[in-house]
Design brief:
It contains 18 helices and 9 strands. It is α/β, with parallel strands linked by helices. The protein has 3 domains: 6-190, P-loop containing nucleotide triphosphate hydrolases (Rossmann fold); 196-267, Helicase, Ruva Protein, domain 3, CATH 1.10.8; 276-368, Chromosomal Replication Initiator Protein Dnaa, Chain: A (Orthogonal Bundle), CATH 1.10.1750.10. The protein has a 5-stranded parallel sheet, with helices on both faces. The protein has a two-stranded antiparallel sheet with strand order 1-2.
Length: 372
Amino acid sequence: MANGIFAIPIKRLEPAASEQLDLFENSPPLGPEDSLKQFIFGKENAPARQALECVLAQQAVASPLVLYGDSGTGKSVLGHTLVAQWFQRYPEQKALHTTGADFARMHARAVYTHSMNEFRQRFLRVGLLVIDDLEILKTRSAAQQMLCNLIDHFQANDRMLVVCLPELPTHLSDFDDRLSSRLMERLQIKLHPPGDSAREVIVDRLAQQHGVELDLPTRDSLIKPSSHLGAQVDTVPKIRQALIRLRSEAELDALDLPKSDVQTLLDQQGGETPDIKHIAATVSKHLNIRLNDIKSSSRRQYVVRARGIAIYLCREFTRSSFGDIGQYFGKRDHSTIMHAFKKTASALNKDASIRVAINEITDKLAQKYKLN
């Protein structure tokens, strides 16, 4: 801890932990979205750090804990990290991380197969349950009622529950009053974009990781949210994306980036660059796979491969979030899109066919659009 800054390591789930997630048959492996090795807490997010410590200490006052905030403030990252640290502290206890979409899907399957008791028991056995994107349940009244019952059990048995939402449950339409009431009983913590002190650490660490040297005016403009540039890159994913694009745009190798180059790049976002639809259509045509198949729920290997390539290119060449990309590709949740992106990125060094396809599609896009 220095100058009011506190950091906790962002860790992936160990294999032993992922084995306990076998009830989520189609859930993606868990891992943080951004490339920082630590989550940086400034004074603006000090209450969140204290709340997470309460959860890890199994203090009843912290369950249920509602983490809410805008996209990119770190809700998903903290959820994954919390589960990983729980396994380290309590290896004998189970912990689960899922999404509202997966919870609703499993609940619907349990209703259809008359296995509701088995579904309930699976959740009742865990010591910590983290549910990301819980707002998906707002139109699923039966799943909401089931979650109410689980919350009652968790509170009666000193189990820990953490949910992530874009805003408070009382501000969400179609959210059951009974569920809202239970979620509002204990702790609600808003996650804020990093302040000046935290941004300073984040900008420096990301610049170092991506081999980018910033001159002082540019560095200051990225750090201070009151500046024009700072207002445009106010979260960790946006700061990371800006630095990667700057490096790619200038074809740099650890050279200085003047402020004018930063501004020029950010001002270039618009009609000259491809959007999700154009990238997906280009992938469809190049791989000779119907676009509707890529957007569908098909799990055929060649379709999954094409979908992963399209998602990877959308993330690389647009400013769209994982959530935005997921909406286009069959309304998939952001954690599923995150997994597809990471799987394709990992395959680049192992699968020559994927690498060639991405290079060829990128060349086609470059002929028509300005790529950063």
